[in-house]
Amino acid sequence: MAEQKIKGVKKFFEEFKAFAMRGNVLDMAVGVVVGSAFTAIVNSLVGDVINPLIGLFFNNDFSEVVVKIGDVDLKIGSFISAIINFLIVAFVLFLVLKAFNAVFNKKKEEAEEAPAEPTTKVCPYCQSEISIKAVRCPQCTSKLEGFPEIND
């Protein structure tokens, strides 16, 4: 009984290892780490550069601008800072995806093959579609130009 449980646990960890080592999971993990680092950069840009510049008009750090309505504090500055963070992240993500799509589409266009050679042609007499190798039209039996007569 205990031996079956150990085998079951080993199998579970082997399945987990196979799942974790798949390319998609590793790519996603790298994306999350890079994304969180990028978020820290954007937060610093907004909090340390943009908010103080906007705050020049309020004589205060913009993220600390509060509107009081009775006993309620509306943190307008903090909310607008979050919107600015979002817009910067969305814009940079747009630029990255646009660059990626441009590279991907360029490679896709390069990989496309030249158009295939035609396999049919049109009979100049009856306008029916026939094989490109035909010497006579199977519809009107006209001898097609450019081919010698075949004698069997």
Automatic annotation (TrEMBL):
Main location class: membrane
A GO molecular-function descriptor: mechanosensitive monoatomic ion channel activity
Statement: the UniProt record of this protein carries the keyword Nucleotide-binding: no
Pfam families: MscL (PF01741)
Keywords of the record: Cell membrane, Ion channel, Ion transport, Membrane, Transmembrane, Transmembrane helix, Transport
Record GO cellular component, one term: plasma membrane
InterPro entries in alphabetical order: Mechanosensitive_channel_CS (IPR019823), MS_channel (IPR001185), MSC/AndL (IPR037673), MscL_channel (IPR036019)
Location(s), subcellular: Cell membrane
Transmembrane domains' residue ranges: 25-46, 76-97
Domain of life: Bacteria
Membrane topology, as annotated: Multi-pass membrane protein
The protein's role, per its UniProt record: Channel that opens in response to stretch forces in the membrane lipid bilayer. May participate in the regulation of osmotic pressure changes within the cell.
Quaternary structure, from the entry: Homopentamer.
Similarity remark: Belongs to the MscL family.
HAMAP family associated with the record: MscL
Protein name: Large-conductance mechanosensitive channel
Gene (UniProt): mscL
